[in-house]
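@channel anyone free to eyeball this complex?
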Amino acid sequence: MLKRTPLFAAHQRAGGKLIEFGGWEMPVQYSTITDEHLCVRRAAGIFDISHMGEVIVRGPAAAAFLNVTLTNDVRKLTVGLGQYTLMCHEHGGVIDDLYAYRLGAEEYLLIINASRIEPDVAWLQERLGAFPQQADVTLANLSDHTAAVAIQGPKTPGLLDQLFPAASTGGTSVAKPSGLKKNQIAQFAFDGQPVCVARTGYSGEDGFEVITPATLIEAVWDKALNLGHQFCLQRCGLGARDTLRTEVCYPLYGHELDENTTPIEAGVGFFVALDKGEFVGRAVLADQKANGTKKKLVAFKMTDKAPPPRPHYAIWAGGQKVGDVTSGTQSPSLNCGIGMGYVPPECAVIGGKIEIEIRGRRFAAEVVKKPIYKKTA
Amino acid sequence: MSTQAPADLKYAKSHEWLRVAGDVATVGITDHAQHELADVVFVELPALGRALKAGEACAVVESVKTASDIYAPASGTVVEVNKALEANPALVNSAPYGDGWFFKLKLDNPSESGALLTADTYRAQITGA
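replying in thread with the prediction:
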């Protein structure tokens, strides 16, 4: 039985085309992926991301626990600030990539991938069991009672200010949501209840993520859509979410990241704070950073007319198969095939010629700098 | 739901249509199929002269989300393909029964198409689904 978010009925009423994603029944599109994608690039789109997981880590030793469990340095977080980070095995393989927000002096919110809620929570509990100050840390998995929407696009600051018109009540102190800077989070009142608003997203555009109790999300969704007319706000599905993040080369767990791939191989070493002291996976990640890796994630563009590249297609270079595509699609912004995939370091050269095998034929592609799509002012 | 299905065509359960004129038939995908696929960005057509068996995968239509096989609705030899789809695959969306046709088949057995669905039966299939 597939899981459904509190917005499931709203998606059905709106004519969303529903598909299975990581055990969840989610809308892939309402109009077309291209239409929704371009709407986010030009104006505003709203996505149901209630399937994602939320874990609260609290207590006097919460920061110390997170700093030995996650790759980034949580000591950089002041109250009301978040960071992208990863959770790795001892061998460096990624258990999940996530966002960690500091909600209070001793309180952190982790936003984790929907398909990884169970392994993540099990891992966190196991690590906490081995943590010397475990009595000073509590873990709470709020995923079943928490919902979220992402509101993304250049027109969203004005919309958020109408959606939450009063000053923040917690986290970063701002007069209105548009006062938040990238990666900041604050609480705002909605129908008299506190909701979290973070200036983050997965689209490569300016935007916000709104995290609420499950019972409140439909009211937020409806009000955003009502207010959203003047901002050209459209409902968007997971299809556009995927093409948007692929254009800007954000990794997706299960595609670019998995338990056999390290953050260094995936090109997200910036979020691995080797200088912060010991943490799970540090030895392997430090070695890879110093001595290199056997595979590297590259971004590529199709250079000739070709079918869109797709995950699992073979990558060829110099007459031999050198890797596999992890994500691929037709770029709605660039109107050509784009993708990412792992290749040996000698093939990971910007401008390098590669080929993508599609149904037995090889099509020319070129390794390009990440992100594949960059906004022009 | 998109249910446009002209009465003069024959339909396969797998959402292809067939327009028979003598022993040559034009093949495309239905309005319902193009609507389900949404933004078509690439069409791979069969080679000229290829002999197809009814039900055989013979073309691929790619939307942003996915690649889908297209099946031959009848047996025959490919005698023409719609070159316009190379430059403008979106014709499949805008004119599925017109300029968005895929290929023409010289039918092995023109009476075989009688086994395909009528417009009414096809419409019942997609609305009942």
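from a first look: Chain A has two domains: 1-292, 294-371.
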